[in-house]
Amino acid sequence: MDEMKLHKLLMRFADDDNSQGFHRPLEIDGSLYYTNGKIIVTAPLMDVDRDNAHSLADKVKKYGDVANGNCGFNNLPEFPDFSWCARCNGHGAVEFKECEDCDGRGWFEHGNHDYDCKNCEETGRVVVEGGEKFPCSHCRGTGIINVGSTRIDGFPFGLVYLSLIKMLPGARVCVVPPEAGDDVATLLFRYDHGVGALRGRRCD
Known about the structure:
By secondary structure, this protein is an alpha+beta fold. The protein contains three helices and 15 strands. A six-stranded antiparallel beta sheet has the order 1-2-3-15-14-13, with helices on one face. A hairpin with a 3-residue loop joins strand 2 and strand 3 (39-44). The longest helix has 11 residues, at 57-67. It is globular, with a radius of gyration of 19 Å. 27% of the residues are buried.
């Protein structure tokens, strides 16, 4: 897999709405870290746009170090049934163009006031055939909507994130049980170009 294909795949693990400030990979100690705060995956350095500093870099690196731990890695189990994403019709990508109502800003001025653009739902882009393709934010580029979770070794993990991990070449996983006082397990995974970790869901 060439660098740009790998980068585009790993950007599905990044923070697409930038709520955590992880909209670009972080460069830490000679590796790239892609994360949205819930799942993290590492990759070798590539010639891509990246951040060299972040207030949460130490915490991100900690999870990356955990993913390198000694563990018995196995293939992902089969998932429950899923539904195709209605927004992208299962393609994993949506075609957009710049919103003409707000000139791509997500808001507009009228008189002395600023208003949120309803036409594009404040995104600055509208879905249109023939537009520029972007990964679908609704399904994180997987093309499917997995609601709920499935258990691996008795611990629940979100199906959306498991679907992302399954897309990685050579992906294998290992469950690390919760530490004392915690009820959330961690799913470590390895793939052909790096490692990763997924925070599980709380046990019922």
